[in-house]
Amino acid sequence: MILAKHAGFCFGVRRAVEAAERAAPAYTLGAIIHNPQAVARLEALGIRTADGIDGVPDGARVVIRSHGVGRAEMEALTQKGCEIVDATCPVIVRMRAMVCEASAAGIPLIVVGEAGHPEVRGILGWTDGPRWAVLTQAEVDALPRLETALVLAQTTLVESKFRALCDALREKVARPDIRATICAATRERQAECVEIASRADAMIVIGGRESSNSRKLCALAGAICPRTHFVETAAELDGLEFRPSDTIGITAGASTPDCIIKEVAARMNDIEKKAPIEETNEQGAMSMEDVEKTLVQIRPGQIVTGTVVQITDDEVCVNVGYKADGLVKKSDLSSPDVKIGDEIEVEVVKVNDGEGNVLLSQKNIISRKAWEEICAKEAAGEFVEGVGKEAVKGGLLADVMGIRTFIPASQLSLRYVEKIEEFVGQTMTLKIIEIDRAKKRIVASRKAVLMVEEAERKKKIWDSLEVGSIVKGTVRRLADFGAFVDIGGVDGLVHVTDLSWGRVKHPSDVVKVGQEIDVKILNVDPERERISLSYKQTQPRPWTVAGEKYPVGSVVEGKVVRITTFGAFVELEPGLDGLVHISQCALTRIAKVEDAVNVGDIVRVKVLDVNTEAKRISLSIREVLEDEALENVPDDEYAIGDDLPEVDA
C-alpha cells in the first residue's frame, strides 16, 4: 500500500472542527465539513446543524465553518445577538479581503468555481458590485465584456482547469486581475494523488459524497488509474476485488477524519493477510513458475525497501524480494556508510539490465523527498536553508536540499547588491516565493527573511518601550521642527518645544548630530510607528533649583531678552528670566529703560529676591554698579570724619 502523506484534514478544516469542539454546545450554518461521520460525532457533542439563519435561535453560539459565509449572513447573526465563532479558513479570509478591496474600488468579481458551493457563495457575498461564478466555457461565453475584473479561484479547484478558464476569461475581460487562490494544501494533495495513481494498480479515494475536493481527487486518479474506487467508509471495501500482486494507492479528501483513513488502511491490511496461498503441484512442491508468482512484482519507477546482502568496491547488492537481486552504484547512494544487513529504500531504474540484474538508485528518491519537503515548507510558509553556488545573470543560484534554486538579485538583500559573487559559498536562510512544479523550478528570497527578522526585531523594541521611562539615544538628524533620535533601532522625535525649558530657534542650538543624550518617552504609537520624546524633561526644571543656583546677593551675568515700560527681563539660562525694575537699571534716574539697556545686551546683575512658587526673580544692575564704584574708590581718598560727597538718589 502507498498511503498519501497529504491525506485527510487540511489546516483549515482541522481548525474549524477543533473550534466547533471547543464551542459545543453550538450551531453551525450548514454542515461543518462534508463528512457525515464527522458531523454525527460533532452532533453527539452538542453541535447542531442549521440550514440557514432562520434555524439559529436568537443569542445562540454559532460556529462559522471553514467555507465562510457572506457579509449578509454575518450581519444577520449579529442582529440576532448571536455569539459568533469565526472558523473561516485563513485562505478564504484573505480572499474575502481581496473582494472587499475590489468592491470598494467598483471592480466586478468573477470566481472560477461551483456556483452552488458554500465557499463560492460566501466569497460572492462580500461584494456590492457585479459578480459571477463560472466553471464551464459556456458560462464564460455568457459573461458580458468587461474592462476589468478581479478573478479568484475556488480553493479546491484543479489548477489546470483554473488556468484554462483564465485563458478564456482574457477574451472577455480586457484587464483581468487574476489571483491564483487555489489552496497550497489542495495543490499538494492533487499532485500527490496523480503521482501515486501513476504507480498504483488500484486507487482508493476516501471522502464524503458531498465533498467537492474528494470528488476532484477521484476524477484525477481515475484519469490515470482505471481501477479507482471512491469510498466513504472502510465498510465499502468489502465488495471490491484486489489481487495479491496489486500496489494499492490510498488518498483522502480534506474533509476526511484521520480515524476513517486508519480504518481503511487497517481493512486493506486484513485483505492482504487473507490473500489466497498459491496451490502446490501433485508432488507437494511448488513449480518454478509458482515460486515466481509469490515473489515481489516490480516495475521501473517503483520505490521498494530491500536488504543489503553484498558490497563491492563500486556497487551494493540489495535483496528486494524479487527473483533477482538489485544493484546500486555507490555514487547513487544517499550515504556511503551502508553495511550488510542494512535495510534501505531504493527506486527501480531497470527491471533487467540485459544481464538479469535489477538496476536500483537512491538519487531520485532523495531528490523527490527533498522536492516534497521544499513544497511542504513553501505551503506552510516555513523558511529553508541554502548555500550560494554560482552568480548568474540577474541573481544567484543556490543549493537548497540538493535542489537548484534561483535567488533574483533584488531578493538577495534589503539594499542594492553590487557584487553578487560575495554570496557564493554563504549559507543563508531563504523563503520560497515561487514553485513551478511542472518544470521543477524554485525561486527563493533572502530579502523576505531579512524583512521578517527586521520586523520581529522592531516588534521587540516597540514592545519594550514604556511611556515615562528615560532611555539613551543618539541624535541622527535635525529638522526645523525637532531632532530625530535613535533609541536602540527605532527613531523617535524630540519636538523643538521639548528640547529645552527655554525658547529654541533651531534644534542645532541645543543638540548636534551624533550626540548621545538621555530622553524621556512621552508617547508611543506602534501602528503609525511614531515615538514622541523629550530632552528637556530629563533635566530639572529651572525654577525648581533657582533658589539654590541663584542665591540672594549673588552677582550673575545674563542677556536682556525683553524690555517693557517697567523694566527689562534678563535671561539667566534657558527657561529662567529675571526682572530688572526700571529703578534698578542705572545709577541715576532714567525716563525709559532703553536709556540704560537694549535687547541683546549682556549685563551683570545682582539677585535681590527669588520666589520659586511665583516664578519671580528680582534683579538689579544699579547695585552691581554701586558695588563696582565703591571697589574703585582708594582706601585713603577720604579721611574719617570728612564730609562725603553728595550722591543723587
Task: Write up this protein.
The structure is a single chain. The chain has 649 residues and is an alpha/beta fold. The protein is built from 15 helices and 32 strands. The strands form seven sheets. Strands 13-14-15-17-16 form a five-stranded mixed β-barrel. The protein is elongated, with a radius of gyration of 42 Å. The model is unreliable at 276-295 (pLDDT under 50).
Indicate the overall shape: elongated
Please report the distance between the alpha carbons of the first and last residues: 120 Å
Radius of gyration: 42 Å
Largest sheet: 5 strands, mixed, barrel
Features:
15 helices; 26% helix; five-stranded antiparallel beta sheet; 649 residues; 30% strand; alpha/beta
SSE blueprint:
Elements: E1 2-3, H1 11-23, E2 26-29, H2 36-44, E3 47-50, E4 61-64, H3 71-79, E5 83-86, H4 90-104, E6 109-112, H5 118-124, E7 131-134, H6 137-141, E8 146-153, H7 159-169, E9 173-178, H8 184-199, E10 202-206, H9 212-224, E11 228-231, E12 248-252, H10 258-273, H11 288-294, E13 303-311, E14 315-319, E15 326-329, E16 343-350, E17 358-361, H12 363-380, E18 383-392, E19 395-400, E20 403-408, E21 427-436, E22 441-445, H13 447-464, E23 470-479, E24 482-486, E25 491-495, E26 516-525, E27 530-534, H14 546-549, E28 555-564, E29 567-573, E30 576-581, E31 602-611, E32 616-620, H15 622-631
Parallel strand pairs: 1-12, 2-3, 2-4, 4-5, 6-7, 6-8, 8-9, 10-11, 10-12, 15-17, 25-27, 30-32
Antiparallel strand pairs: 13-14, 13-16, 14-15, 16-17, 18-19, 18-21, 19-20, 21-22, 23-24, 23-26, 24-25, 26-27, 28-29, 28-31, 29-30, 31-32
Helix pairs in contact: 8-9
